[in-house]
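On clarity, I found the account of how folds are encoded harder to follow than it need be. What matters is that the chain and its backbone geometry are given together, residue for residue. For the editor and my fellow referees, an illustration may be useful. For illustration, here is how one protein appears when written out as sequence plus structure tokens:

___
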Amino acid sequence: MAAIVSLDNIVKRYQMGPVAVEALRGVSLVFSPGEYISIMGPSGCGKSTLMNLLGCLDRPSAGHYFLGGQDVSQMSDDHLSVMRGTRLGFIFQSYNLIQQLSVLENIEVPLFYQGWPEAQSRERARALAAMVGLGHRLDHKPFELSGGQQQRVAIARALVNDPLLLLADEPTGNLDSQSGKEILAVFDALNQQGKTIVMVTHDEATARRARRTIVLRDGRVESDHRW
């Protein structure tokens, strides 16, 4: 089965005045469909840089990144925007919901930007809200929800475009332990349904929920274990 992600000798350099800092130093990885991958490492190891590249929010300084068979390494900003909107789903530690919008409207946002007809986008959003257990809270605003419920809305929003790859950045970092366990159970179920998930976490117990753990250090892959 063709890889969803292929990173070939990725280098990311940042110019800090006269000094060039390499955040990633020759990272090569392959992610297959249906994998559940956690990424760990100390502060400054390159986790955030790697996630930005995987999410088409940045481009590598050298090397190639193939997403769904397409080389996105040198794509224009417009093409990268299309890739983010159609092939990727993002889940953030701080949820990043729009406070003025309802649960249903927050889930629909990506489809609005893709020009979906309102009736179809509304039906899709309702189905996903029900899937994450919020079918009874459609008209509520984020401030009326618990942290765990807000993260469920964020998960539904990330799924609305049926992405190739779900990217989760410390998705339980703002949650109490019980809510965190519930969110990880949602990820487990999604992976069992075939979704490919890449999750950054600093917590070893959370990382062990994945089937594969990649540890970065000093911009390189220190270890890559499958469980």
